[in-house]
Specification:
The structure holds two protein chains of two kinds. Helix content of chain A is 33%, strand content 22%. By secondary structure, chain A is of the alpha/beta class. Chain A has one domain: 3-Layer(aba) Sandwich (Rossmann fold), CATH 3.40.50. In chain A, the strands form two sheets. Chain A has a six-stranded mixed beta sheet with strand order 3-4-2-5-6-7, with helices on both faces. Chain A has a two-stranded antiparallel sheet with strand order 1-8. In chain A, helix 6 links the parallel strand 6 and strand 7. Chain A is globular. By secondary structure, chain B is of the alpha+beta class. Among the domains of chain B are: 141 residues, Son of sevenless (SoS) protein, Chain S, domain 1 (Up-down Bundle); 196 residues, Son of Sevenless (SoS) protein, Chain S, domain 2, CATH 1.10.840.10; 84 residues, Roll (Ubiquitin-like (UB roll)). Chain B contains 29 helices and ten strands. A five-stranded antiparallel beta sheet of chain B has the order 1-2-3-5-4. A five-stranded mixed beta sheet of chain B has the order 7-6-10-8-9, with helices on both faces. The longest helix of chain B is centred in the first third of the chain and has 40 residues. The relative contact order of chain B is 0.08. The chains are: A alpha/beta, B alpha+beta. The interface between A and B is large, with 74 and 74 residues. Chain A: It catalyses: GTP + H2O = GDP + phosphate + H(+). Chain A: It is a lipid-anchor. Chain A: It is an enzyme of class 3 (hydrolase). Chain A: Belongs to the small GTPase superfamily. Rab family. Chain A: Its main location: membrane.
Chain lengths: 212, 655
C-alpha cells in the first residue's frame, strides 16, 4: 500500500509519567499497529497522515513514555521536534505544577520556533479533578500556547488537538517556505512523495478500542 | 517416497484456527503440525518416512480469575508452555499475590498423610508451580516483617512435599529475607550515623572535599569494566513484574510512590553515569580545548570498551551524555577531537538511532544474544564449548517504553469482565526476553575494583542548570568557531527546508553522512538565545558543590571570554589532604590568592608572605608561581585545578 503525503512533521509528547500521553497517541492513531511486530520491533503506532488546508501532512509522533526518568534520553528528541504537546492530568495537581519544568526544558533544548500546545488530559475524570479548566487556560496564556482539555476515553478533543498542533507547525513553516520561494526561487514544491508500505501501518488491530 | 526436507518446512508448522469459548473462558486455537511418535518398536525401512499429525492447541485467552488460577494447576503445560511463566510474571497487574495463593492453596492446609503416598496430580502441579514461582519471582513473597504469604507457602509445602526441593527453597527464601532485614536495619543505623557525621562535618567547613583520584585517572578498561560490574549487578536484580507498563508508568502517582525500586535503581545508575560524564567534561572553565577534547576522547574509548563488553546500558548513558546540550555545544573541544575517536563515536551513536522504532539497537541486541547460543549448540559432544563473551546488558528503557505502549494499547479486561490474558502473554514475550538477558548476565566475571567505584561515587552530580551554565562559561554562546562540527554542518535555510520537505521516507534520516550523530535540524540561533531555565529545584542547588554555585553567580551568559576559573588550594602539611576552592579571576595576584587560601584554611594570623604557591602538574611536578605574578595568567592551563601552599624556608610564623 503506497502512502502519499506532502510534508512530514515530528511531534513530541511530554509530561509526567501517568498523565496518559500514550493513551492520547494510541487514541489518535486508532491503535494502528501490528501485534505481530511487537516482539521484533516493539510496539509502534506513531505515524498518521492527516490533511490540513489541503496539505497531506504525515506526522510522526514521538512518545518516550516509560523513559521519563532517564535524564538525557528524552531531551535528545526535543531538538528534532517541530511541535510539542505538554500534557498534564487534570486529576493531578502535581503533574500540572510540573508543566513549568517541562516548558523550561523545551525552551532550553528545543529549537526556536517549535510549536507548543498545552493539554489537560483525563477530562472525563471530573469527580477527581484537581486542576480547574481556568488554571489550564491561564497557564497556556502565560506561555502563549493553545489549550485543550482532552479525554482519550471519551475521545474528547483528540483529533482537534493533534490537528491544531499540526496547523501551527504548518503555519510556522509555511512562512519560511513562502519566503524561501520568493528569494531562492528554488524548486521546492511540496514534494509528492511515494512512500513504501510502512511497517507501522497495520490494519489488523485498527478496530480495537483504546483502553485507558 | 522421499521428499526434500525443504518442502516439509514450506508448510507453516502453526496455523491460526480461531477462537473457542468453553464455560465462559475464551481460547485461542491454533493447529500445529508435529512429528508423530512411531508406534512400531523396531525402526525398519519406514524410518525414512516422516509422520506428522495435526494437533489442535488451545491456549487460554481470556477468563475469570478463578479459571486462570485453575489453569495453573490443571492446564496442559506441554501444549501451552507460556501460560504458567506469563501468569507468574504478570499476575500482579491484575490480582494481588495473596489472592492467588488464597485460590491456589486449599483451605485445609494439606492432604491427609495417606494422601501423600499417592499425590494427586493436581497437587504435584501445584507444588511445581509454587517451585517456579519461588525461584523466578522471589520478590513476590517479600512482605516484611512477617512475610505472611511466604509463611503460608512454607507451611503448605512442608506438609505437602516435606523435604522436597520446593519446600527447601521456600525455607531458604524465608531465612534469606529475615537476614536481609537484619542487615538492612544495621545498615540504616550506619547510614544515619554517617549522615549525621557528614552533616556535622559540613557545618564545620562547607568546602571540605576529600581529594581522591578522579574517575578519568583510571584506565579506559578499568572504568568500562567497573561500569559493567555495576550495571550487571543492577540489571540482574530487576524484578520482571516491576517493568510492566501498569506498574512502571504509574510510579509517580501517590499510590505508586516507591514502587519498582529495582527498575528505578537501573535508571538511577544510568543517570549517574551521564552525570559523571558531564561533570568530568565540564571541569575547569579555563581548560584549553585540546585538553577537554582529550576527556571527550577518553569517554569515547570507554564507550567503545563498553560496547566490546556488550554493556549497552552504560554505552548508551555515555553517548547520551556526550550528545546532551552542555557537552554537545562545546564546538571548540569537539573540533580538537581526533579523527579516529570521532569516527568511533559516530559508529557507536548509530547503534541508538531512533529510526524504525530503534530497529538498529534492537537488532544488534538480538544478534549479541544469539552469538552466545549458536557456538555452544554447534559444538560436538566432548569438545569443550567455545568461550563466548558474557552479556549483553541491554538498555532497559526501550523495553520499558514497549511495555508502556502494550499496556496502553491492550485492554485489561474483555467483554463479560474477563481478564484479558492475551495481553499478559504479549507482555510476557518482552519480559521473558529480559529474563533471558538477565541469565546471560550472570556469566560476567569481572572483579570489583573498589578504588574505581569510589571515584565513580565521589563524583558530584551537576544539576542540569549547572551543567548548562558551566558549558556557557567554557564556551560563551556568542562565540562560534568556524571549524566546529555544528558550523561545518550548518546548512542554509534553503537546504534545511528542502531536506525537510523531501524526506523520502516516513523515518527521515536525520544524520547526514559526516555529521556528528546528534540532531541537526536545530537552527544555530536557537543555541545563542537560550532562556534562563525556569523553576530550578532548590534541592538541586543545595546538592551542588559550593564552588560551582559561586562560579555560576559570577559568570554571566554572554560573557566574551572565560576570565575566571576555580582552583583548588591545599596546604602541604595538612594531614587531611583537604583543599579549598577559590574563584580565580584574571585580576588575581599571588599575595591575594594566598591570603584567601590561608583564611579559608582557617590559619590563625595568616602571613601570606611566608608561603609560596605551587601549581601541581602531572607527573609529580610543581610549578612555582612567582610572588607577584598574576596567578590566572601564570598558571599552566594544562592542569589548572590544583595548587599547594608551601611554607618558605626560614619563615617565622607558626603553621
Amino acid at each position: 500500500m503506497a502512502k502519499q503525503y506532502d510534508v512530514l512533521f515530528r511531534l513530541l509528547l511530554i509530561g509526567d509519567s501517568g498523565v496518559g500521553k500514550t493513551c492520547l497517541l494510541c487514541r489518535f492513531t486508532d491503535n494502528e499497529f501490528h501485534s505481530s511486530h511487537i516482539s521484533t520491533i516493539g510496539v509502534d503506532f506513531k505515524m498518521k497522515t492527516i490533511e490540513v488546508d489541503g496539505i497531506k501532512v504525515r506526522i510522526q509522533i514521538w512518545d518516550t513514555a516509560g523513559q521519563e526518568r532517564y535524564q538525557t534520553i528524552t531531551k535528545q528528541y526535543y531538538r528534532r521536534a517541530q511541535g510539542i504537546f505538554l500534557v498534564y492530568d487534570i486529576s493531578s495537581e502535581r503533574s500540572y505544577q510540573h508543566i513549568m519544568k517541562w516548558v523550561s526544558d523545551v525552551d532550553e533544548y528545543a529549537p526556536e520556533g517549535v510549536q507548543k500546545i498545552l493539554i489537560g488530559n483525563k477530562a472525563d475524570e471530573e469527580q477527581k479533578r484537581q486542576v480547574g479548566r481556568e488554571q489550564g487556560q491561564q497557564l497556556a496564556r502565560e506561555y502563549g500556547m493553545d489549550f485543550f482539555e482532552t479525554s482519550a476515553c471519551t475521545n474528547l478533543n483528540i483529533k482537534e488537538s493533534f490537528t491544531r498542533l499540526t496547523e501551527l507547525v504548518l503555519q510556522a513553516h509555511k512562512k519560511e517556505l513562502d519566503g524561501l520561494r520568493a528569494h531562492a526561487r528554488e524548486e521546492l514544491a511540496l514534494a509528492e512523495l511515494e512512500e513504501k508500505d510502512s511497517k507501522t501501518e497495520g490494519t489488523g488491530n485498527s478496530s480495537k478500542n483504546c483502553w485507558c | 517416497m522421499e521428499r526434500p526436507p525443504g518442502k516439509e518446512l514450506a508448510l507453516a508448522p502453526l496455523q491460526e484456527w480461531g477462537e473457542e469459548e468453553v464455560d465462559g473462558a475464551v481460547y485461542n486455537v491454533t493447529l500445529r503440525r508435529q512429528h508423530s511418535q512411531r508406534p512400531g518398536p523396531d525402526p525398519g525401512p519406514s524410518a525414512d518416512f516422516v509422520h506428522y499429525r495435526t494437533c489442535k492447541v488451545r491456549a487460554l485467552r481470556a477468563a475469570r480469575i478463578e479459571r486462570l488460577v485453575l489453569e495453573l494447576v490443571q492446564g496442559d503445560h506441554e501444549q501451552d508452555p507460556a501460560f504458567v511463566p506469563a501468569f507468574l510474571a504478570t499476575h500482579r497487574a491484575f490480582i494481588p499475590t495473596d489472592h492467588v495463593l488464597g485460590l491456589l492453596l486449599p483451605l485445609r492446609q494439606a492432604p491427609r498423610p495417606q494422601g501423600l503416598v499417592r499425590l494427586h496430580s493436581g497437587y504435584r502441579a501445584l507444588i511445581s508451580v509454587l517451585g517456579s514461582w519461588l525461584l523466578d519471582h522471589p520478590q513476590d513473597f517479600k512482605d516484611p516483617p512477617a512475610h505472611p504469604n511466604l509463611v503460608r507457602v512454607c507451611t503448605f509445602l512442608s506438609v505437602a512435599a516435606p523435604g522436597g526441593a520446593e519446600s527447601q527453597e521456600a525455607e531458604r527464601l524465608l531465612k534469606h529475607f529475615q537476614e536481609e532485614e537484619e542487615e538492612e536495619e544495621e545498615e540504616e543505623e550506619e547510614v544515619a550515623k554517617k549522615l549525621q557525621e557528614e552533616e556535622e562535618g559540613a557545618k564545620e567547613e562547607e568546602e571540605h572535599v576529600k581529594e581522591g583520584p578522579e574517575l578519568l585517572d583510571f584506565s579506559v578498561d578499568e572504568v568500562a569494566e567497573q561500569l559493567t560490574v555495576m550495571d550487571m549487578e543492577l540489571f540482574s536484580q530487576v524484578c520482571l513484574g516491576e517493568c510492566l507498563g501498569s506498574v512502571w508508568s504509574h510510579r509517580d502517582k501517590a499510590v505508586g510512590r516507591g514502587t519498582a525500586p529495582s527498575v528505578r535503581a537501573t535508571v538511577a545508575q544510568f543517570n549517574a553515569v551521564t552525570s559523571c560524564v558531564l561533570s568530568s567534561v565540564l571541569v575547569g572553565p579555563g581548560l584549553p580545548p585540546p585538553y577537554r577534547a582529550h576527556r571527550l576522547e577518553k569517554w569515547i574509548f570507554i564507550a567503545q570498551r563498553c560496547r566490546e563488553l556488550r554493556n549497552f546500558s552504560s554505552l548508551r548513558a555515555i553517548l547520551s551524555a556526550l550528545q546532551s546540550n552542555p557537552v554537545y555545544r562545546l564546538k571548540r573541544s569537539w573540533a580538537a577531537v581526533s579523527r579516529e575517536p570521532l569516527s568511533i563515536y559516530r559508529k557507536l551513536s548509530n547503534i541508538f538511532s531512533d529510526e524504525n522504532n530503534h530497529l538498529n539497537s534492537r537488532e544488534i541486541l538480538s544478534q549479541e544474544e544469539a552469538s552466545l547460543t549458536s557456538p555452544e549448540e554447534e559444538t560436538a559432544p566432548g569438545v569443550p564449548p567455545l568461550k563466548v563473551p558474557p552479556g549483553p546488558i541491554p538498555y532497559l528503557g526501550t523495553f520499558l517504553t514497549d511495555l508502556v505502549m502494550l499496556d496502553t494499547a491492550l485492554p485489561d479486561r474483555l467483554e463479560g469482565d474477563l481478564i484479558n490474558f492475551e495481553k499478559r502473554r504479549k507482555e510476557w514475550e518482552i519480559l521473558s526476553r529480559i529474563q533471558h538477558l538477565q541469565r546471560r548476565c550472570m556469566s560476567y566475571s569481572l572483579p570489583s575494583r573498589p578504588p574505581v567505584l569510589a571515584a565513580f561515587h565521589a563524583q558530584r552530580p551537576l544539576s542540569e542548570e549547572q551543567s548548562y551554565r558551566l558549558s556557557r562559561v567554557i564556551e560563551p554562546p556568542a562565540a562560534s568557531c568556524p571549524s566546529s562540527p555544528r558550523i561545518r554542518r550548518r546548512i542554509s535555510l534553503t537546504k534545511r527546508l528542502s531536506a525537510k520537505l523531501s524526506r523520502e521516507r516516513g523515518f527521515s534520516p536525520s544524520h547526514q553522512p559526516g555529521d556528528l550523530p546528534s540532531p541537526t535540524v536545530t537552527s544555530s540561533s536557537a543555541q545563542g538565545t537560550v532562556e534562563q531555565p525556569l523553576g530550578t529545584k532548590v534541592s538541586e542547588l543545595r546538592a551542588a558543590p559550593a564552588f560551582l554555585g559561586s562560579l555560576a553567580q559570577t559568570s554571566h551568559p554572554g560573557q566574551r571570554t572565560p576570565d575566571a576559573c576555580v582552583i583548588r588550594v591545599s596546604i602541604d602539611h595538612d594531614p587531611g589532604n583537604l583543599y579549598r576552592s577559590i574563584l580565580l579571576t584574571s585580576q588575581d595576584k599571588v599575595p591575594g590568592v594566598v591570603l584567601r587560601a590561608l583564611q579559608k584554611l582557617h590559619l590563625e594570623q595568616p602571613q601570606p608572605r611566608d608561603y609560596q604557591l605551587f601549581q601541581v602538574l602531572p607527573g609529580d611536578r610543581e610549578l612555582l608561581i612567582p610572588d607577584n605574578a598574576n596567578v590566572f595568567y601564570a598558571m599552566s592551563p594544562a592542569s589548572p585545578g590544583d595548587f599547594v601552599l608551601r611554607k618558605k624556608e626560614g619563615a617565622q610564623s607558626p603553621p
